[in-house]
Amino acid sequence: MLGASHAFSGFSTNDIPAAKMFYSQTLGLEVTEENGMLTLHLAGGGRVLIYPKDDHQPASFTVLNFPVENIDQAVDRLTQAGIRFERYEGAPQDERGIVREYGPAIAWFTDPAGNILSVLQGQE
Question: What share of the chain is helix, strand, coil (3-state, %, to 5)?
């Protein structure tokens, strides 16, 4: 029934201007703004809607994953851009926050509203 629909995902933020700066300036994504909401334009044609919500509560799970060719280089570049990688108690993370067990190497960080994002190795 919806197989031909160009579906997209979305999540909330409590600060549209901060989100716009983070996603466009820090992460280098194409971001458009319309009706007080942001659209992230992802490689390959994907889209993500970010909408304002006054009582925003960040999800306790990853809302957006960024596949990368080389996770070590991606983590280094993001760290240089001011990104702080999350540390999770009990997770087998290396000194940079990368988990290399249980599947593709992955590292998590958050946007200004606390939404959890990741970079992961070789899933392009």
Answer: 20, 35, 45
pLDDT tens digit sequence for 79-111: 999 999 999 988 898 899 999 988 899 999 999
DSSP H or E run through 101? none
Displacement of CA 55 from its chain's centroid (Å): 20
Q: What average pLDDT score do residues 44-52 get?
A: 95
Q: How many CB atoms lie within 10 A of CB 17?
A: 11
Q: Which residues neighbour 79 within 8 Å (Cβ) at sequence distance 6 or greater?
A: 85, 96
Within 8 A by CB and 6+ apart from 98, the residues are 71, 72, 75, 85, 105, 106, 107
Q: How many residues does the chain have?
A: 124
Burial class (CB within 10 angstroms; exposed 0-12, middle 13-18, buried 19+) of 119: buried
CB atoms < 10 A from the CB of 111, how many? Answer: 22
Comparing C-alpha atoms, which of 59, 69, 62, 61 is closest to residue 104? 69
Q: Which two tokens stand for residue 72?
A: 């070590």
